[in-house]
UniProtKB/TrEMBL annotation:
Membrane topology: Multi-pass membrane protein
Keywords: Membrane, Nitrate assimilation, Transmembrane, Transmembrane helix
GO molecular function, one term: nitrate transmembrane transporter activity
Pfam families in UniProt: MFS_1
Name of protein: Major facilitator superfamily (MFS) profile domain-containing protein
Family: Belongs to the major facilitator superfamily. Nitrate/nitrite porter (TC 2.A.1.8) family.
Keyword Signal attributed: no
Record-linked InterPro entries: MFS, MFS_dom, MFS_trans_sf, NO3_transporter
Residues covered by the Major facilitator superfamily (MFS) profile domain: 44-444
Any single GO BP term: nitrate assimilation
Highest taxon of the lineage: Eukaryota
Region (Disordered): 1-22, 468-511
Length: 511
């Protein structure tokens, strides 16, 4: 049950709109119909996941072709390791910047701009001629992975609290499918071009025009068909006064000082960060260890990424279902359990020596680690209303930091064998997931303790603490009030809407 909060009369109040889907008081959809392209909610979903998919294909297009590229460019194991790190390191700061950009100019313009800025690097891959140029194109192409942040921000802006987990899960998961699809697409494209008559050292270069063109076209699709919010685009809503203009410094301040965002950034580094790492190493791992054909190794490696078709979305759905019964505490518990199991199976993957067993364990591992990614972004939208983009960027950036650190420690050069590196990576997953026990929402509780009874903090108190009295006098906080009302579902079955504080009550500043 959602109640409309009273708002002061204003000449800038948007007129009541009719949508194809049921919406809440923020006009966010309370339904998630995956086969629909209804504007603006479901159309935004399909634009977001496919654009992220295209960027993922571009960023990892080189991975399945490494055995060919390394022969052409005389790459060493260190060169390959450095390039793998470069492919995920560029997006670290890009994701943080993307989150802030989404808060200020909206996900549509932010994502399309980044896609167009990074697509030339994909085209330039076809003309590289040295280890250094190979590293540089992978580095700059990897910036496009920051579109994940705009994808999650967009879904959190379009879908209500009761379905936001699955919306984020499906959009992120289907986008991540690019990591598996490229393991199939690039060897196939390479083979087709080679069969037409090109030499193998020419065929792999021509093959890169396919992901480059796909990425470019998605940017124009977003600009033409996309919409930032249910009510319109950021620019138009700010110009009309229907959306308050926010200050960069305050958006950044409230995001950076929320410790929950930092913990989620760490734990995401060891679910999504691990996924990025595996995307970079798994084809070469099976190719070398079991002496497989390039196409066979690509198919096996693809099965890891392709599990995203159901695993990450499944994580989002499970997160929503757990929240319906147990509230936010249910979301936290299911994330910890799932990610810890991912660590256990990662350890096992590095220990087994049979091809068949390795494939089975890898698939089980992929399901758990990708489901944990979906569960993480079932929590992210509730950390902050005002600084949603910053929190999304911090968390997404944490995923890339985890990938960089993991590859630098375990998969760069010859310090560890890949088998040993995979086992140690699994141990890191288990350890770095433990901080989830420290996340606590005073209005909902945490994994070990329930909501604060002494402070009696409500959802309004928590989200309005991000606005000072002057900003509240201007009415800038009204969006937070509506979100607070809709987020009461995070209490689980003990939902109680009888105690709503007045708008005029000054909220506590340290929640």
């Amino acid at each position: 049950m959602n109640l409309e909060l009273p708002t002061p009369p204003s000449t800038n109040q948007p007129q009541q709109q009719k949508f194809s889907l049921q919406v809440d008081s923020e006009n966010k959809s309370t339904e998630f119909k995956i086969h629909s392209i209804a504007k603006p909610h479901m159309l935004a979903f399909h634009l977001s996941w496919f654009s992220f998919f295209a960027c993922f294909v571009s960023s990892f297009a080189a991975a399945p072709l490494v055995p060919i590229i390394r022969d052409n460019l005389n790459l060493t194991a260190t060169d390959i390791g450095n390039a793998g790190v470069a492919s995920v390191s560029g997006a670290v700061f890009a994701r943080i910047a993307m989150g802030t950009a989404c808060d200020l100019v909206g996900p549509r313009l932010a994502s399309a701009s980044l896609i167009l800025l990074t697509s030339p690097a994909v085209y330039f891959t076809s003309i590289i001629d040295s280890p250094t140029s190979f590293l540089l194109v992978r580095f700059f192409t990897g910036f496009s992975l920051a579109t994940f942040v705009s994808t999650q921000f967009w879904m959190s802006s379009m879908f209500s609290t009761t379905v936001v987990g699955r919306a984020n899960g499906f959009s992120g998961g289907w986008g991540n499918l690019g990591g598996g699809a490229t393991q199939l697409i690039m060897p196939l494209v390479f083979s087709l071009i080679q069969n037409i008559g090109s030499t193998k050292f020419t065929a792999w270069r021509i093959a890169f025009f396919i992901p480059a063109f796909l990425q470019t076209m998605t940017a124009f699709s977003i600009l033409i068909f996309g919409q930032d919010l249910p009510d319109g685009n950021f620019h138009g809503l700010k110009k009309s006064g229907e959306k308050a203009k926010d200050e960069f410094s305050k958006v950044l301040y409230h995001g950076v000082l929320n410790y929950r965002g930092w913990i989620l950034a760490l734990t995401y580094g060891y679910c999504f960060g691990v996924e990025l790492t595996v995307d970079n190493i798994i084809a070469e791992y099976f190719y070398d260890k079991f002496n497989l054909k390039l196409s066979t190794a690509g198919i096996i490696a693809a099965s890891f990424g392709l599990a995203n078709v159901f695993s990450r979305p499944g994580g989002g759905v499970i997160s929503d279902l757990m929240a319906k019964r147990f509230g936010m505490r249910g979301r936290l518990w299911c994330l910890w359990i799932c990610q810890t199991l991912a660590g256990v199976f990662c350890v096992i993957l590095g220990l087994v020596g049979s091809l068949n067993v390795s494939v089975v364990v890898m698939i089980i591992f992929s399901v758990f680690v990708q489901a944990a990614c979906g569960m993480t972004f079932g929590i992210v939208p509730f950390v902050s209303r005002r600084s949603l983009g910053v929190i999304s960027g911090m968390t997404g950036g944490g995923g890339n930091v985890g990938a960089v650190i993991t590859q630098l420690i375990f998969f760069k050069g010859s310090t560890f064998s890949k088998e040993r590196g995979i086992t140690l990576m699994g141990a890191m997953i288990i350890i770095c997931t433990l901080p989830l026990f420290l996340i606590y929402f005073p209005q909902w509780g945490g994994m070990l303790f329930g909501p604060s009874s002494s402070k009696n903090v409500s959802e309004e108190d928590y989200y309005m603490s991000e606005w000072n009295s002057k900003e509240r006098e201007k009415g800038s906080h009204h969006g937070s009030l509506k979100f607070a009302d809709n987020s009461r579902s995070e209490r689980g079955r003990k939902l109680n809407i009888s105690t709503r504080p007045s708008e005029d009550v000054t909220p506590p500043q340290n929640v």
